[in-house]
Amino acid sequence: xxxxxxxxxxxxxxxxxxxxxxxxxxxxxxxxxxxxxxxxxxxxxxxxxxxxxxxxxxxxxxxxxxxxxxxxxxxxxxxxxxxxxxxxxxxxxxxxxxxxxxxxxxxxxxxxxxxxxxxxxxxxxxxxxxxxxxxxxxxxxxxxxxxxxxxxxxxxxxxxxxxxxxxxxxxxxxxxxxxxxxxxxxxxxxxxxxxxxxxxxxxxxxxxxxxxxxxxxxxxxxxxxxxxxxxxxxxxxxxxxxxxxxxxxxxxxxxxxxxxxxxxxxxxxxxxxxxxxxxxxxxxxxxxxxxxxxxxxxxxxxxxxxxxxxxxxxxxxxxxxxxxxxxxxx
Amino acid sequence: xxxxxxxxxxxxxxxxxxxxxxxxxxxxxxxxxxxxxxxxxxxxxxxxxxxxxxxxxxxxxxxxxxxxxxxxxxxxxxxxxxxxxxxxxxxxxxxxxxxxxxxxxxxxxxxxxxxxxxxxxxxxxxxxxxxxxxxxxxxxxxxxxxxxxxxxxxxxxxxxxxxxxxxxxxxxxxxxxxxxxxxxxxxxxxxxxxxxxxxxxxxxxxxxxxxxxxxxxxxxxxxxxxxxxxxxxxxxxxxxxxxxxxxxxxxxxxxxxxxxxxxxxxxxxxxxxxxxxxxxxxxxxxxxxxxxxxxxxxxxxxxxxxxxxxxx
Amino acid sequence: xxxxxxxxxxxxxxxxxxxxxxxxxxxxxxxxxxxxxxxxxxxxxxxxxxxxxxxxxxxxxxxxxxxxxxxxxxxxxxxxxxxxxxxxxxxxxxxxxxxxxxxxxxxxxxxxxxxxxxxxxxxxxxxxxxxxxxxxxxxxxxxxxxxxxxxxxxxxxxxxxxxxxxxxxxxxxxxxxxxxxxxxxxxxxxxxxxxxxxxxxxxxxxxxxxxxxxxxxxxxxxxxxxxxxxxxxxxxxxxxxxxxxxxxxxxxxxxxxxxxxxxxxxxxxxxxx
Lengths: 330, 312, 273
Description:
The complex is a heterotrimer.
Chain A: H1 2-29, H2 34-39, H3 45-55, H4 61-74, E1 76-78, E2 85-87, H5 102-137, H6 142-155, H7 159-173, H8 189-223, H9 226-233, H10 238-276, H11 281-290, H12 294-322, H13 324-329
Antiparallel strand pairs in A: 1-2
Helix pairs in contact in A: 1-4, 1-12, 5-6, 5-8, 5-10, 5-12, 6-8, 7-8, 7-10, 8-10, 9-10, 10-11, 10-12, 11-12
Chain B: H1 8-16, H2 26-47, H3 49-56, E1 68-69, E2 75-76, H4 99-135, H5 137-151, H6 155-165, H7 171-198, H8 202-209, H9 214-250, H10 262-269, H11 278-305
Antiparallel strand pairs in B: 1-2
Helix pairs in contact in B: 2-4, 2-11, 3-4, 4-5, 4-7, 4-9, 4-10, 5-7, 7-9, 8-9, 9-10, 9-11, 10-11
Chain C: E1 4-12, E2 18-27, E3 32-36, H1 43-51, E4 58-65, E5 68-69, H2 75-81, E6 86-89, H3 93-96, H4 103-112, H5 119-132, H6 138-141, H7 151-163, E7 169-173, H8 181-198, E8 201-206, H9 209-215, E9 218-223, E10 226-232, H10 233-238, H11 243-251
Parallel strand pairs in C: 3-8, 3-9, 6-7, 7-8
Antiparallel strand pairs in C: 1-2, 1-4, 4-5, 9-10
Helix pairs in contact in C: 4-5, 4-7, 5-7, 7-8
Transmembrane segments (chain A): 12-30, 112-137, 149-170, 190-212, 254-276, 296-322
InterPro entries (chain A): BPD_transp_1_N (IPR045621), MetI-like (IPR000515), MetI-like_sf (IPR035906)
Family (chain A): Belongs to the binding-protein-dependent transport system permease family.
């Protein structure tokens, strides 16, 4: 188990390094002149040369990448002398637009994204998995057909379309909900829920359909297993047969897929936030894209990549904990 | 292959998603027929876009400020998004361009990108999957690792980042390349698995024993048997590509104006959604309907090809 | 009165296949009945029908266990019987045991389904049962998972699970088919020994005439869901009345006779629907 964990972490570290290198190349090598971008339009050649020097753009590529990596893991100092700027760990650079450290921007935007993501995840897991399991237990019933048709609709509905529809119907036409805005859970819990319910539902709708289909398929397969028949043959109550013997194996793949979706969730949160105008990490990224603020885009990408890679490791470990066969095979 | 162990675990689970849900009924068959017809109509409409717009007497790029009401901040004249005999689906607020023509040309762009990207990923996935599964050895090791890497890659975020710094020219081609590149491992994995098991199946062994060479085996025995699974992957890849392209264009990193695509049209409609809901509803409904139709079709193809689906 | 009386039992599956067709037999307390036949003859379906474990199939006729008709029994009545008075050992222990739970727990769970005892006590029963079926180091093995056991050991676990409540009837559904010949002999020996100790009646389903000879009091030969021949084992082996039984017996290669040029096979049967 320890070796397994270490090996997974090693692979994750390698993956992160590859992602770092790729993003670095994309953002600092592909554009014509990052210094020009950093400085803006009205900018003299003298100032550009100075920025180029501060960012270290004259030095060889591997050197630039090296200092970038050092910055991420230990912090770095741009420039020398009076003009030098220290960027503490973890240094993802400074925004071209606001000159704030990217890391601080990320950290201040994170709570909004996290509350959208967690709320949506809880919603879709509860609704999707429950609907799928009930469908599996009542295969062919009206409920089953209706739920599966709804699920297919759900997975075909793009997030931004749902978001626009919700806003148009619930906010503009019916006036049942306020426009979503950033409210702290701790200041005004009711307003927080009112504000978050649309983003949660929007994001959850897509995944609930996916999970209902997944849970149904797994549960149907699980219910047909020999060991479920054994459990019945032992005289266990039907509730124990279903919950203990059929549900547990069916949930293992669901957990795995969920772990992988934590990564996709960020992409979804990005779109959700930008439609509802909520100031999360996603909004930060979409604003940065619109203003070509490359250090911020790079920072968000790396942050997201790191999150996804670590989530994948966590999933593999949870998988090993859930399934004794995997645990002993490694 | 190592059974349900280590890194195969999450990938296995991913492939589970493409497994049959198995709801078969008359209703499902009818839904499949409707979907197929809808897709064909859409394809024909996309192909005939120049003819259709000519018939309607419009163009996707002509500005018609006469259809707008300057007093209302550029909203279309008359209700319902400015639907009139001149503009069958109304006009774009602010510019007065004809929505029917823009949506039609947007359909062309969105479908073309999705189909081309699917073609790229399926061809790439089939070739590399075949090489990996049929020849094994180091080819399999390398291709397998690359597929694992790509599938655990945060691809959407990465696509957004990549497209945001990419040059403004040839966005459509770039989208096809990016979508195709990140999509091929899904086809690749399935083809690899099938090729591996097929090349050990009796009829291939028999052909080998009869002295067939590798090429005959590959093209005569293995490839024809892969048609089914590849068709399923392709059918399900199309809606995924449509949705991803629309998402990227919606975020402003996909297709850029003046070229229309569904996602791009919806993005343009966001500032107007409260005053002129038809502007986002029309391309949105088309996008939803198309993705749904392809998903229904994909399910049907899979159910038809998966013998296990029948009993469930 | 017999412990188990089956009369006019028919099982029809949803797709119209008639797996068992008007089958009748009975089984006395303390005796062993072997049901033999080729695969698809309906012998396994019969054993599942007794436990009411055939969802989606239409079961008709009577299965009387100790005076109660199981075909008409309510689900709760059936559940109370399963495991407690009628237990079953399946063919493939690897798939019949839940891979997610320790074997000790799976046995304890069977015990606790019918006895209101604390988990710890049930676990002690499980360890005792594992010891009784000949699993070395039962304390430790009880905490292991099915995939950590060999095929023979897994089948011992299944037997321990089936016998932990001392059922009156044990159904063994091809319990040795998936095992090596030497392990087969061990498991058969174990079953025979436990049967003698507990006095349990056994319904033994097999396609192996060799197994029948060593174990059975009575034999029921099945083909296409119907009973072909029934009688005491000595009589059936010595003078089989039906050509099909003769054919089945002829299929068994004998060590005390010269090997024929071709092993005998059973002639194919017309389809019965």
